[in-house]
Amino acid sequence: MKTALITGASSGIGETFAKELAARKTNLVLVARSEDKLHKLANQVESKYQIQTNVIVQDLTASAAAKSIFEVVLEQGLTIDLLVNNAGFGDYGNFTQRPLEKQVNMIQLNITALVELTYLFLGRMQQRQSGGIINVASIGGFQPLPYMSVYGATKAFVLSFSEALWAENRDSGVKIFALCPGPTESDFFKKAEFPEFAREGSEAKLTSAQNVVRDALEALEKDKSNVVTGEFLNQVIVNTSRFLPRETLVSLVEKQFKGLDSNK
């Protein structure tokens, strides 16, 4: 039976990955900060699907967090067949009016931890000539995002990094790709401190986490370099940069995102 390690597994897309993979008879290593939520999820999928789960409580914004996770996996004698780098968060607002610590932690979580975990587990997958890595990016990674400047930049990094590794590893037996969801049912907007009325107005447009995960696992089987999930509008958004000058595009995005907050 194969084993998947999922970061940010306590809620949202990460939790859904855990449930879907468990249903497909995959053992799990669940990683997040929320110990109670992780153990509740582990007990649920173990009893329902008769799989094995391991829980690692870890704040990935901490230095050396990825190395700690890797060492625990080695100590427990586990082989990771699928790595899902899902943990991440965003933040809404004018860059200089948002806490610097939050922006730096976002870079640590969305980029640094993801790169470190990929590096640590990819080498062993290459040695076995098998395995998969799903790096969760966003449709926001295809163009700059004023008022979410750091978040958009981190997801642009994840997209570029993952596509480069996809090309490097095409003959290695390891599949790597960037998962690029649009707005998805989760607590992302709340944690990013989006204006409440904007969150409420977008509820009807949210894609279910189940659909995102199923699209992701299908893309993994097809060995795609990236997959954009959600409604057709998301495809339009990610391809707009091919037809508009960058200054025009980012100006349009700035007007749209500024309009989310009535105080701006």
Automatic annotation (TrEMBL):
Similarity remark: Belongs to the short-chain dehydrogenases/reductases (SDR) family.
Name of this chain's protein: Short-chain dehydrogenase/reductase SDR
One example GO MF annotation: oxidoreductase activity
Bilayer-spanning residue ranges: none
GO cellular component terms listed in the entry, alphabetical order: membrane
Pfam family, one: adh_short
InterPro entries given in the database record: NAD(P)-bd_dom_sf (IPR036291), SDR_fam (IPR002347)
Keywords: Oxidoreductase
Claim: S-adenosyl-L-methionine is one of the keywords in the record: no
